[in-house]
Amino acid sequence: MIDFGFTLSKSSTVDLTTLDRSRYDQLIKLVPTARMCMNCGSCGATCTVGEYKGMSVRKVLYGIQRGEDVKAMLSSCMLCGKCTMVCPRGINTRNLILNLCKIYD
Amino acid sequence: MIDRIPSGFHPFVIPFLVGMAFVLLYCGFALLRIIHQLSWQDRKKFFLSLITPTTIYKNIRDIFANCLLHIPLWKRNKLFGYMHSSIAFGWFMLIVLGHLEVILFVPGRINLFYYPIFFNYFVAEADETIRGSLLFFLMDFFLLIVMSGIAMAMFRRIKNHVFGVKRMARPTFLNLVGLYSLWAIFPLRWLAESFTAHISGGSFMTIPANWLFRQFLGNELNMLPTWWAYSFALCIFMCVLPFTRYMHIPAEMLLIPMRNAGLKVRNSRKGFAKVEVFACPNCGVCIDACPMTVDNGNVKDCTVYLTRQLRRNNEERIQEISDKCLLCGKCEALCQVGVEGPGLRILERARRDYAVPFTYPATDKAIESRKVLYFAGCMTHLTPSIGRSVEAILKKAGVDFTWLDPQGGLCCGRPMFTAGRIAEAKSIVANMERLILESGCDTLLVSCPICYKMFRENYNLPGVQVTNYIPFINELIDSHKIRVEKSDICYVYHDPCELGRGCGMYNEPRQLLGRSAGIAESAHNREESICCGGSLGSLSLDFAQRENMTKAALNDLYTSNADAVATACPLCLATFARYADRPVKDIAEIVNNQII
Q1: With respect to CATH, is domain A22-103 assigned 1.10.1060.10?
Q2: Contact B540 A92 (CB under 8 A)
Q3: DSSP labels for B434-449?
Q4: What are residue B399's phi and psi, to 5 degrees?
Q5: pLDDT tens digits for range B48-79
Q6: What is the value of pTM for the model shown?
């Protein structure tokens, strides 16, 4: 194969037969503003631990909507609140993370 | 002086005795239970303080000043001060003088518990001597004082605003029963003593009333029913007391010695916290103080309702109330009793379990070794103008410094701490401590008051002096390392919660601001400063819900007619800047612009 210097990312097709959205539904009940996320990524860009652990609320939200495991990201959050401050949609991201930490088992 | 009832007993004293026995037993058991709930170190501390002369003196002085004379309340509000101290001190004097009467005139009856309370019924011609008439005069005088206080309390229920209070906590049914029985006790006592005054004698309140009643009512027939009614009023009040706000009377007398012994709240449901919760008199000062209650919203989330729900063990509401609070600390600063609203809430948050454990995102970045280590903190990185200004000032002053968190960096642990994840916060603290100590600095300079409070209270940094940038810059000016000239812009200084109420720093920022600009004061400043609404203390308040709070805080700052707003907290700066109609600046920016 010719090396173009880049590759296509791995396919991550959403499999609706095995998709578990129960945690997301639970979260929406506790933190209704979570639905307002438009995936702009401000939270990840400003995140203090993003630099070390790749934490991003956008990725967390995206992940649990697709039934992925986001525990590693959640466990590194220091709750500093910068993501809440920069969120253009006014999502209470700290409350979102705390509630996810509670319901994630 | 004649002891006119040979047996020294009448059935009407029974309701009083029942009430008294109930309240004493209840409080006695509650006391034992609370002492049992204390940790053994706390218990030892408490008992030791009870036999230490200095704390004994302090306890007596504080109980007199706070529970009886209500001196702190006088300082805040004269009308309230009079209302409360007249009832408390007046009632206390009635009891003391009642005992004195018994000791002086019928010393054989002092072992009868009820004699001082119903003295006038059991004696005759007690005012014949100088001593007797003086005591009767004093009794009538203090009864008048108490009744004037009761009259004010009744008036207050109708016209609250005259007392400068906008909102009160909604009374529960039992609170109303307690209130009305308390109101009834003293007029009934006056009536009973008046109907008996032709037998027992009396003074300026009772004798004219006795004469007046004789003209159209007759005294003999009314005498016993009113004594019965008086006794029943006392009985009802004492029987409902443990379940109403009036529990604050015995609880505060326990709270003061416990606080003087140096006890701290460790568990929001046990021991010392329980005393604080019961000592809340439900006055509702925290409702007007709370920044969340703007436009009458969130009233039921104030500290007064937290203590109420804690007494009821209403888990759902306790969680809701503790998660919503901004932890600005104003309710605690204004509370007459000293209920630690924010502290109780943090401990409530600490009771939750989290399924996902916290792992510290480790960093191995070595820090350059310099004299001064500047920690900007997360919020300053969102408002980099502050960090840049501090850096510029330090460079101009020739300070040997480096950044602890040059690129985004780390969190001090305060947000984790206020979220109630104490152990997790401790792991952040431990890592930060290591990083700071390894750098070999001798001063840690902090520009964010949220971090500053955390460093001051929760860090152990031997050999490192933790300082806020405000005293540090003041020091630089004092030692002529930098010179500032005064600009002609007038700023109103907003006291950030964590710096003012949190660290008690009120004068230094004003001194520094005064050196570089004009300064004005708003209607509510210093310990009454209103939270900007951006606080990270609140877990559940959404962004949209905070807008009115920020606007209300700004409107209060605008009362000063200043050209611009100055603050010393990056979070206040970011929050205010969003809605303010005039410039909002951090003190560091102002000083940096005025350096010559």
Answers
A1: yes
A2: yes
A3: HHHHHHT-SEEEE--H
A4: -80, 135
A5: 999 999 999 999 999 999 999 999 888 888 88
A6: 0.91
